[in-house]
Amino acid sequence: MKLRFPASEKLLRVACVLALIALPLMVWSLFDPTVWPVLVALSVGQALGTLSFLLFLIAVARDLQLKQRLARKAAAPEP
Amino acid sequence: MGWMSVASAATAGAMLLVHLLRRRPVTAFTKLWLLVSLGLLPIVTAGTANIAGFEATQARTFCGSCHVMIPHAEDSGNPRSFTLAAVHARNDSFGKKNCYTCHEDYGMYGYVLTKMGGMRHVYLYLTEYRSMPLEQSKRDIRILKPLPNANCMHCHTTTAPGWLAIPDHASALESVRSGTLSCASVGCHGFAHPMTKIGKEL
């Protein structure tokens, strides 16, 4: 069975949710500057934030690829 | 710095919620909207929060947030204490960052090396000392290696005429510079903290 990557809309929604989790984790240490909040902000917060941005980039790259493929198909002569 | 981090996080969060609730189709506008809310603003948040976080790791309250360090932090913040740590903490150049200022490795990569050492402390705290009773920790937890005199000489130069005029300094000059005699030892300036060496002198 071939694994399919989720659709761009779904990917972007997941990215949004991840970012919504990451952002409070990143700023938590500002309100409670003790060991665990700082460590979580610098590790889990950063990792989730980076992952969400990567998912966004993947979705954009996939859309661009799809657009290029459609344009190529449209430019090709009719058989 | 903190307000910028919170403001960018709040703006990004609001923009992301709008996107999620409105279920917009993926158009060029949506992508631009998400570039700002998933990319630009979180990068500002992460950058400013990182700087604030690293600054926070230099504060005495941060060092004292592990229970085994509470006695050290409380003593050095005590205005009535006359330990080396407390006397230095009353100096504006040390202030609330006095733990870091004294324990920071001296040199070009001092900050990085100090933070790597700090991560080791966190690891040891998690694996060994987390449930250690305070009384036991006062006796058993000690600095990994003696505080190098270079850290003291960062401020107290051994070449100043006033320093050399003190007979004990002049006679121990080579030992102090080579590190074979610690500034923070019995007979010299005494231990920096009152509870670190109980029963187990280095």
Task: Walk me through this protein's architecture.
- The complex is a heterodimer of chains A (79) and B (202).
- Chain A is mainly alpha-helical and 79 residues long.
- Chain A has one domain (8-74).
- Chain A has two helices and no strands.
- The model of chain A has no long low-confidence stretch (mean pLDDT 87).
- Chain B is an all-alpha fold.
- Among the domains of chain B are: 2-56; 62-145, no CATH class.
- Chain B is built from twelve helices and no strands.
- Chain B has helices at 2-22, 28-56, 60-63, 70-76, 84-89, 98-103, 110-129, 134-140, 149-153, 161-164, 167-171, 173-178.
- In chain B, α1 (2-22) packs antiparallel against α2.
- Chain B is elongated.
What secondary-structure arrangement, pairings included, does this model have?
The complex is a heterodimer of chains A (79) and B (202).
Chain A: H1 8-31, H2 35-75
Helix pairs in contact in A: 1-2
Chain B: H1 2-22, H2 28-56, H3 60-63, H4 70-76, H5 84-89, H6 98-103, H7 110-129, H8 134-140, H9 149-153, H10 161-164, H11 167-171, H12 173-178
Helix pairs in contact in B: 1-2
Measured as a percent range, the helix fraction of chain A is: over 70%
From the spread of the alpha carbons, the general shape of chain A counts as rod-shaped
| Integer-rounded radius of gyration of chain A | 19 Å
Oligomer class: heterodimer
Strand content of chain A: under 5%
User: How many DSSP-defined strands of chain A?
Assistant: 0
Based on Cα principal axes, name the global outline of chain B.
elongated
Number of strands of chain B: 0
Q: What's the helix count of chain A? A: 2
Largest sheet of chain A: none
Distance between the termini of chain B: 42 Å
| Distance between the ends of chain A | 33 Å
Give unreliable regions of chain B as ranges: none
Topology order of chain B in helix (H) and strand (E) letters: HHHHHHHHHHHH
Order of H and E elements of chain A:
HH
Quickly count the domains of chain A.
Answer: 1
